[in-house]
Amino acid sequence: MWRYLNKIGDEKNSELSIDDVFAAYFALRKNKRRTPSALRFELDFERRCVDLHKRINARTYHPGRSAVFIVSHPIVREIFAPAFEDRIIDMILQRKLVPLLERFYITDSYSIRKGKGVLFAVKRVAQHIRKCSKEYTQDCYILKLDLRSYFMSLNKEMCLKMMTDFVYREYKGADKDVLIYLIREVILDCPQHNCQRLTPPDSWLKLPWHKSLFNVPDNHGLPIGRMTSQICAMYVLVQLDKLITKNWGVRYYGRYMDDMVLIHRDRKYLLQVEQKIKAWLAEHDLSLHPHKRYLQHYTKGVKFVGVVIKPWRKYISNRTVSRAVERINHYNQLISENKYLVFEYAEEFAFSLNSFLGMISHYDSYNVRVNLVRRLDDAWWRVFYFNNGYKRVSVKKRFRSRFVEQRKIHIQLQNDFTRIIGYTK
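Structure (tokenized):
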């Protein structure tokens, strides 16, 4: 297999179609069109796509410079944002490989899969608890595990071998060699050596040392922020998923990237499976987080992907509610300092608030939503109106941006006219 990989760089018969490059570009542009990098690329996208196509087939493509920054929510993370051209490469790989990978995932492997995000994950885990406990009438136990610094701990050579083996075995297209070449370029890339920091250096002080790509060896760690990294991270644990559910007899199981939930009637059996998981992870240079382990009776509930799941009810975690309160306090502070800012920030605040209300409204949260909107400054109540049980906020017509702009132009014209009349007098 590795002799085959060594010949990839010299193989010229396998070529990627120009249609694949343009299709990936247009698919990516749907959600990235307003970003500065996308706008720059769009100014001459035909020439740039043709040039990228030529470099791919000539095997001279290499990932470009990334932008790196620190985000604080939902947790402190280091994000590498690839150049727009590199996002096109990610989209090409995604369009080619994801349909094939879907056949190998189990139903309860969530995260980046279409239709299997947070809502689906919470629903499935709640169903598993209900079924295992026989409608909450019999004992069962929940074991929640989390991998330690998962993306930073991944061995690049291991990821490359697993992905190339998969492509070589499952992909039947004529451009197989060039896809393996692209996978190799992306996975073995070290973006920490060619990046631009968008947040101040002291923002890295908030990040644990072992969660930064700058602090791991070059042969370890996949950057958070690249779609190819997420695809690899999902596929690495496919074998473990099947071992847990088929070989080790844990019928009720779910995994959201590196967060795993196992549900079983026998507490001791869960402990035995945990030891097997540790052994499998050790063979792949991975380990469980020592402080993020949870084993309790189902009546205690479990927090999974930001949602607390208990018998007969599900509610949002306190951390998510705290983030919503921080956002409301931020905009309350802005409007208290200058009442005129309401015209500039109304729609921006509405978008932010709707993201929280929409997420919270999927769970038992009416009182939470009421308490959140009560925190709004009185000035915001003149601007917003709520509907459908505080599940959505809308900006009143006269405060929307296009009407505000029209009003500003009208006021400017009035001022100009007044100044002219005063000058003539």
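The longest strand covers residues 66-71. The longest helix spans residues 401-424.
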